[in-house]
């Protein structure tokens, strides 16, 4: 599983990264978690408000902080395929 946190490094972006890491650890999953801070790459996902969360190439959220329960639900959707 590949998870990307999109954002220039603001407080919310760091918090989203921390929340994603916590959920992945809680679920005991093997995931590659990457922080993407390059604005051109972020824009290439169609994300213009950060933070953004991309799981396996799919943009799950942009411009707001998702709750941990949302993050967990999205990650679990990809583990059941």
Assign the CATH class. Alpha Beta
Gap between N and C termini: 11 Å
Class inferred from helices and paired strands: alpha+beta
Number of domains: 1
Q: CATH superfamily, called what?
A: Glutaredoxin
CATH hierarchy: architecture: 3-Layer(aba) Sandwich
Q: Reading side by side through the largest sheet, how are the strands ordered?
A: 2-1-3-4
Low-confidence regions: none
Q: What order do the SSEs take from the amino end to the carboxyl end, as H and E?
A: EHEHEEH
The biggest sheet amounts to: 4 strands, mixed
Number of strands: 4
- The assembly state of the depicted protein chains is single chain
Overall 3D form: globular
Helical content (DSSP H or I, runs of 4+): 40-55%
Q: Which percent band covers the strand fraction?
A: 15-25%
Radius of gyration: 12 Å
Describe the protein's architecture and organization.
It is built from three helices and four strands, in the order βαβαββα. It has 81 residues and is an alpha+beta fold. The chain has a single domain, classed as Glutaredoxin (3-Layer(aba) Sandwich). Helix 1 (11-27) crosses helix 3 (68-79). The protein is globular. The chain has a four-stranded mixed sheet with strand order 2-1-3-4.
Which helices and strands, and how do they pair?
Layout: E1 2-6, H1 11-27, E2 32-36, H2 39-44, E3 52-55, E4 58-62, H3 68-79
Parallel strand pairs: 1-2
Antiparallel strand pairs: 1-3, 3-4
């Amino acid at each position: 599983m590949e998870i990307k946190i999109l954002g220039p490094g603001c407080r919310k972006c760091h918090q989203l990264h921390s929340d994603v890491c916590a959920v992945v650890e809680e679920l005991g999953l093997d995931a590659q978690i990457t922080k993407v801070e390059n604005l051109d790459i972020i824009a290439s996902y169609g994300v213009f408000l950060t933070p953004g969360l991309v799981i396996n190439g799919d943009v799950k959220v942009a411009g707001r902080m998702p709750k941990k329960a949302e993050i967990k639900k999205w990650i679990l959707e990809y583990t059941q395929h």
